[in-house]
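Notes continue from the previous slide.

Worked example: a multi-chain complex. Inputs as given:
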Amino acid sequence: MNDLLRDTLAERADGAEPPPLDLDAIVAAGNRQISRRRALTVLGGAVATAAVAVGTATVIRPHNTQPQPARPIPFAQRRPTFALGNNIHYGDDVISVAPYKINAFVQTDAGFVFLDSGNKIHIVDRDGVRGLGKGAWTLTADHRGSLVAWAEGFNDHYESVVYDVAADRELVRTPVGNKIPPNVSLAYGPEIVAIDGTDAYFGTLDGLYRWDITTNKGELIADVSPVAVRTVVAGQIVYQLPLSQPLTGTSLAIAKTVSATAPARFTGQQAFLSPGAKYLVTEPDDARPGIQPLWADLLMYDTTTARLTRFPRAYESMFFGQWLDDETFVAAGARPSAEVDLLAVTPRTGAVKVAVPGFSKLTFSTTAPRIPPFALPTGKPIYDLY
Amino acid sequence: MSFAEFATSRHGALYRYAYLLAGDRGLAEDLVQEALVKTYVGWHRLRDPSNAEAYTRRVITTTAIGWWRRKSWRAELPNGDVPDRPVNPDDVTARVWLWQELQKLPPRQRAALVLRYYEDLTEPQTAEVLGCSVGTVKSQVSDALKKLRTRLGADVVLKAGMTE
């Protein structure tokens, strides 16, 4: 034999192309460990004394060899944030990711995750930029927490991935529901619909999966197209109606389960539900050819009363950015001069405040992908089809 | 040799070793990253840099076994393309089947097979990486092969001679 075993191992090893080595990240993590050890050494005497005092009440935890977050949640606060070129403007802080250009990004409590101009995934936090050696079209993150997710494409299937930025490791990677049938051209690829607490929602080719991140197990909860469900927040699922017509579905329903008979109470295509599911921001027009997403007419709904508040028409194009909390979200508004303002909006009152005036221009590169100089933390790039 | 030179030159080999242990590219990447960080931290204590690779492999192995014990990666290995039984032991189907069966072995047994039949380490060298006795290595390899033989069937060729 031995040949079969040797051949099998050699074949698998040969087929495992190593990802790029991120030496900077290794050295940075190593230096953090060294610093912690030095600090612990200095504190050792005091800690030992305290341990004796509380010894009977202390549970000794097993040593955890998995990567641990180096510092407590440095980016937990949501501030008016945008990316411009190779800088992320996080409130008053400017975080450089040079030489990479940011096409799309999301915020997690542990750092920002972005796609560069080649759709490669990178993380940037207080220790700098590190590439993951992976690629994706879009990124998805929760309103809180350190998780980010994406769908990764291969020749014959996609894989749904959930990554913990704080721990620097993948928590979920599964091809479930995403086998591409032979000789098929997909109208819509798989997407990660949402991360909602400890559940991730995968919009797969087979339908919508709810995936328990803690147990790494999932279940198919709706036989719908990968893009039929827009988002899930606080257990509330936002999905299009009619369910079977992704190109013409222009109404949205919110419910605990996906149902074709649910009442459609909201107008819109894109949907951004506030962290407590209190308000829903939608955009009704983005099925039109043109700049995508074309959020030129943001609508704001109170989800309990379905009361509609329209956005002031001072801007020609509107782009949703991020919920700061359950009462305020950030958007970008392009004026007729193409100057873009960053706005803070309060749906309850309809109040709009300019947070950063004229931070960029709504102009597009002349070669594909035609994207503007700026990006907002939705995980998706803004682009122009023409 | 500096740490950077070591990491750059041996990263590929370490990643392949980790992949054979973990059976998953993402986990292999995590394992190598974790092990290289530990090697970097202990670099000044590795009096002979030529020991660095053995040390890093040992960290990969023990970390992998530890993660496995905490069941942190057991779920969802893709197996949709695996046939019920290998048809021809010489063709690629047999290797696909064997690879799947290797994933089901306990981590120490799988590590022992990888070290012996991929890395071509001797039994004493394998014992050093696994942190156990030579006798334990022999029994781990023997038990692993017995399981594979049972699962794969007699015509799929894991002969007793494999143990040496």
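Summary box: Helices of chain A lie at 3-14, 23-53. Residues 39-72 of chain A have pLDDT under 50 and may be disordered.
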